[in-house]
Design a protein that fits this description.
The chain is of the alpha/beta class and 171 residues long. The chain is built from 6 helices and 7 strands. Strands 2-3-1-4-5 form a 5-stranded parallel beta sheet, sandwiched between helices. Helix 3 packs parallel to helix 5.
Length: 171
């Protein structure tokens, strides 16, 4: 009886090979106690045939650089029709490194009715433009040093704010 391959449920594009590898290691570490979580990292500079083999064995959490993810989609070694979540972390870094067109192409190939989480240290105009059609009433959060505004014994709370035009996002 052939093993059932887990469908891809989560996609985490990362701007660099190193960040993709680091994220994959973290997900693998944190999911050891959860059965059924299979993580595959795909990125340039590594043999694609090994990545194809790993994807062929099934993965429900795929982490990779946008270019290599797109390469696997074109080769049909990565299918995203079962995707349940896209996590765009370091969106500003991907923009700075010129990956915005790849990310937009990638997002045009995933199911429309799935949540997208977007994290970015800064929110320049192009990141806001990327976020606008993806996010529905997002709660922008700003992380800050808890000692900056809170007394030392007060619990830290996130500072919710509306930078730029984020308060107008209603996709």
């Amino acid at each position: 009886k052939p093993a059932i391959r887990p469908p891809v449920q989560v996609l985490l594009p990362r701007p660099t090979r190193g960040l993709a590898m680091q994220a994959a290691e973290e997900v693998q570490k944190r999911s050891k106690c959860r059965s059924g979580v299979k993580t595959v990292a795909v990125y340039g500079g590594a043999p694609i045939d090994r990545q194809i083999a790993r994807l062929g064995q099934g993965a429900n959490f795929v982490i990779g650089t946008p270019g290599r993810v797109m390469d696997h989609i074109r080769r049909e070694t990565l299918k995203l029709d079962t995707l349940k979540l896209v996590i765009l972390d370091e969106a500003d870094e991907m923009l700075d490194l010129g990956f915005l067109p790849d990310v937009e192409t990638l997002l045009s190939r995933v199911p429309e009715n799935r949540p997208t989480m977007l994290f970015s240290a800064t929110m320049p105009g192009p990141v806001v433009a990327l976020a606008r059609p993806l996010l529905v009433q997002p709660p922008p959060l700003r992380a800050q040093d808890p000692d900056a505004q809170n007394p030392p014994d007060a619990p830290a709370t996130p500072d919710i704010h509306r930078p730029h035009a984020l308060h107008q996002l209603t996709a």
